[in-house]
Amino acid sequence: MGTRPVYALEWPGFGSSDRPDVTYTKELMTAALNALIERLNTDVDVVGLSLGSEFVARAALLDRRVRSAALISPSGLGNPRGGTQEAAADDGGQQLYNRLNAFSTPLYAVIRTRPSIQYFLSRSFRGPVDGGLIDYSLDTTRQPGAKYAPIYFISGRLFTADAYTDLYSRLSIPTLVLYDQDGFVSFDRLQEFTLRSGARAVRIEGTDGLPHFEKLPEVRAALDAFWAAQP
Questions:
Q1: What is the DSSP code (8-state) at residue 9?
Q2: Where would I find the beta strands (DSSP E) of 117-226?
Q3: How do residues 116-163 score in pLDDT, each as one tens digit?
Q4: CA angle 73–77–79, rounded 5-degree value
Q5: For residues 71 and 51, is the Cβ–Cβ distance under 8 A?
Q6: What is the Cα–Cα distance from 166 to 148, expressed in whole angstroms?
Q7: Sheet-wide strand order for 199-203
Q8: CA-to-CA separations, 96 to 25, 26, 54, 160, in angstroms, rounded
Q9: Quick check: helix, strand or coil at residue 82?
């Protein structure tokens, strides 16, 4: 038996959400979360993963009903590696988006193949990649309009250039960071963040970005302890 209601939000352009050919922005993603909170009309404890953590932080700054935030391997706490997760300081990734969009159909056809999906997921698993996640990823990439939002993601336009300063450092709610290693983001400013009142971090050792797949009992224990400590 569960101990609390759980709502799983699929960001616009991903999962089973609508995927129209529109401009996907961090503001659009945040608005989707704030709309869910508005519909629930109650205090909520929000869990975010990777880039979703930035949207969670942004939503929390806009709505006092976000009671706490648990961020799993969040982006924005260090200098992203590989260059794809950092919007250009001058244009927010617009030029890169334009180049990617010009070749979006053949580019997307390559990155949505099983070998490509398995390769990128393998960078987030210490052990074997979860087969169900691969199958789900293949299925979701074949939905109508599936190519649109990922191009904005790859170009960096969904990321906040300085998420620590603009988002995380402004949070006043209890915040938990779950982390270990991550092939896509770093945590250079995590120690600085945990010096803030109400912020703490728990290392889920032996994981590479998706600890809830490989170390679920440890993740659940950390979340339960975090929530139990809330007034």
A1: P
A2: 175-179, 199-203
A3: 999 999 999 999 999 999 999 999 988 888 888 888 888 888 999 899
A4: 110
A5: no
A6: 27
A7: 44-49, 66-72, 175-179, 199-203
A8: 15, 17, 21, 15
A9: coil
